[in-house]
Each structure stands twice: as C-alpha cells, then as structure tokens.
Amino acid sequence: MSSLLVELQGRVAVLTLNRPEALNALDPTLGQALAHEIQRAAEDPGVGAILITGAGRAFCSGGDIAFMKSVFDKGGRYEDFEPLVGGGPGVVRAIESCAKPVIAAVNGAAAGGGMSLALVCDVRWASEKARFGQSFVKIGLHPDWGSVHALPRLIGQARALELMWTGDLIDAAEAQRIGLVTRVLPEADLLPKTIDFAARLADGPAVAQGEIKRSVRASLGYTLDQALDRELTAQKRCWNTRDAREGITAFLEKRQPRYEGR
Hints:
By secondary structure, the protein is of the alpha/beta class. It has helices at residues 28-43, 65-73, 78-85, 87-97, 113-120, 147-155, 157-166, 172-177, 187-202, 206-218, 224-239, 242-252, and strands at 4-9, 12-17, 49-54, 58-60, 102-106, 109-111, 123-127, 131-133, 169-171, 183-185.
C-alpha cells in the first residue's frame, strides 16, 4: 500500500499521509513522494488547490523513530540519517514555490516534523482532537522541515522558543489562540469543510492568488518601499489577466465570476 494517497476531488488534490500504523511518521520514501506530488499538482492545470491530511488518528507524528534506530544500529552515521532529514527542504520548497493554495487539514497529532509540515502550509485548519508539538528536543534533536523559519513568524520568537525548548504538546484550542491554526472544527467536519474551503479557492483567480501568496510569504523580509514596489508589480500582472476583466465585469453585473486562471 502506498504511503501517500493522492485523490482529485473536483479541482482539489487531496494528499493523504498513509502510514496510520506508524501515526503517519515520515520516512525517506514518504518525504520524496510528498515533494513529488506537490510539484506535480502545482504543474497540473486541472488542480486549483492542494490539501494535505493524515490517515487514521494522526496527522503526522514526525520523523520515523524506527528508521532512526536502524541508523544507530548500523553505526549512527549522519550520512545514513540524512535521507530522512534531508527530505524536508524538498517538501518545504515545493510548497513555497507552488502558486496554488496549500491547505493542511490537521486531523490529529502533529509532532516534530509533522508539526513542521503543517506550519509550512499556507493555511491550517484543525480537528478538535489535533495536538501540536515541536518534539525534537525530547530526543535530543533540532527542529527541521522549515519550522525554525515558519514558527517564529507565526507566533513570535518567545513562544516559538518555549515550544521548541520544551517539546510540550498544545491542544487545538491553544493552537488557534496563538495563531497556529485559523479554524478548529469537530472531527467529523474537518475534512469535508476543509475540502469545501479548498474548492472555493481552487475556483478563484489563479494568477491573483499566486501573486498574493508570493507577496505575503515574502512580506516579512521587505522594507516598506520594497513592499510597495512588490504590490505594484503584482497588481500590473493581475490587471493584465482575463480573470481581472471577468471579475470586474461580474461584479458590475451582480453575478458570480467564471475564472479561467489566466
């Protein structure tokens, strides 16, 4: 059975981490498959948004401890561990460079690299049963899969350090309070409602959405002048699309726009 399930629901590519017996722990094969499928969905004109979730009771428990143990059993060389930790940049860069919305539906525990995976998605919705933890420190390791970049930007340096230093789990309500997730839903509602949200985005003006994502993700590194320049550059590109003309026309005609992604 594949460790990553891929399903197209309308124009939403649903990627499901599928190692429920291991709480969807990340191993080199799963990391490679995830990066590949995100890139493929990003290039597929039939896909308008990407949703990532987990099978069973966990979203993702982080790096596969059994894999790490096997590396120590063979002598503990970092070179043998690197295929696991080194898979993170490929996934993170695939999400970062994808112009389409990438949404995490966090259905259960998201720990270590699993929490990092959720953090690098554009938006996170969570089940009431979700739990989040930067658990690397509990096994003497350093956060990876992009969390050192993402987490302080979401919740500030002090809170990020608390979570990374302690490895403590927080529940979905606390995650929403501090800004890690934007919605908390009953378990049964999470996937259908997140898919509905992703489908709404998938039918939106793709060029404008891609430019917005690029601008917002880069914004914390901008000066005000750079931000103003970026806005004008993006606005020019959006103005010259058929979607902009359709959106303005539909607004004036008081009807729903029919976007083409160009």
